[in-house]
């Protein structure tokens, strides 16, 4: 990877520190095509400029909680990429995803320079993605399921099977993936005592239960390796 000019690299490091809970020197070095020694110097420079960077030995760097830096500036290419993502998401079938992404991008647009806002409006009218032409939204559950995954929240769902039968399941949400335009939920099903894959648009209702579940000692990669093995 080509090394960036130092000022651009320092700005990018600040953005990366803001966007992640913790960032390692190795990650930053690989990201910017420099040595870890260079990253150490960059971190010292940022600290000397007054940015409260916390160093966690053996883990990495983070910015002190509650500290907010001024809004970042977007290049024209970055602004264009955001508009493209927005138009792509608008075609998605999940209402909760569309609503939240649109809201987030509106906030990002609000800090664009005046000239960039005009370009963004023009590009919004000139970028089009086919598929889901009726703009139909077949689910509104994605955001709630994402929240349940990160908070280890036990859920009770009513699920419409491919045989057109509705069953109630108590599930431990594990992961979400997308294929062929559909979102699918991987969850441990207490009815079947095993992991199952549920199409999110077939989930008719969700009740968040008071109980939490113990996180599964499994990665999404390990799940799919086992899933593929079982299918074969």
Explain what the structure shows.
- Residues 6-61 form the HTH deoR-type domain.
- It comes from Flammeovirga agarivorans.
- Keywords: Transcription, Transcription regulation.
- There is one protein chain.
- By secondary structure, the protein is of the alpha+beta class.
- It has three domains: 6-63, Winged helix-like DNA-binding domain superfamily/Winged helix DNA-binding domain (Arc Repressor Mutant, subunit A, Orthogonal Bundle), CATH 1.10.10; 76-126; 142-231, SH3 type barrels (Roll), CATH 2.30.30.
- It has eight helices and seven strands; from the N terminus they run H-H-H-E-E-H-H-H-H-E-E-E-E-E-H.
- It has helices at 6-19, 25-32, 36-48, 76-90, 95-109, 114-126, 142-151, 220-231; strands at 53-56, 60-63, 153-160, 166-179, 182-189, 194-199, 203-212.
- A five-stranded antiparallel sheet has the order 6-5-4-3-7. A two-stranded antiparallel ribbon has the order 1-2.
- Helix 2 (25-32) packs across helix 3 (36-48), helix 4 packs antiparallel against helix 5 and helix 4 (76-90) runs parallel beside helix 6.
- It is globular and about 60 Å long.
- The two termini are 40 Å apart.
- The mean pLDDT is 85.
């Amino acid at each position: 990877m080509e090394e960036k000019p130092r000022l651009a690299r320092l700005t990018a490091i600040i953005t990366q520190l803001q966007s992640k809970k913790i960032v390692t020197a190795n990650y930053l070095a690989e990201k910017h095509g420099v040595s870890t020694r260079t990253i150490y110097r960059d971190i010292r420079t940022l600290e000397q400029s007054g940015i409260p960077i916390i160093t966690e030995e053996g883990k990495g760097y983070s910015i002190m909680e509650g500290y907010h830096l001024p809004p970042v500036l977007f290049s024209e290419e970055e602004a264009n990429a955001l508009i493209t993502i927005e138009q792509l998401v608008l075609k998605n079938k999940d209402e909760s995803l569309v609503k939240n992404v649109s809201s987030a991008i509106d906030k990002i647009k609000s800090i664009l320079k005046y000239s960039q806002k005009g370009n963004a409006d023009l590009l919004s009218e000139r970028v089009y993605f086919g598929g889901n032409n009726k703009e139909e939204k077949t689910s509104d559950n994605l955001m709630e399921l994402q929240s349940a995954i990160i908070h280890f929240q036990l859920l009770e769902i009513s699920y419409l099977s491919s045989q057109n039968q509705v069953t109630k399941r108590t599930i431990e949400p594990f992961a979400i993936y997308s294929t062929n335009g559909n979102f699918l939920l991987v969850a441990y099903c207490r009815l079947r005592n095993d992991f199952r894959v549920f199409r999110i648009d077939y989930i008719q209702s969700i009740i968040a239960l008071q109980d939490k579940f113990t996180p599964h000692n499994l990665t999404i990669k390990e799940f799919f390796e086992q899933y593929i093995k079982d299918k074969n």
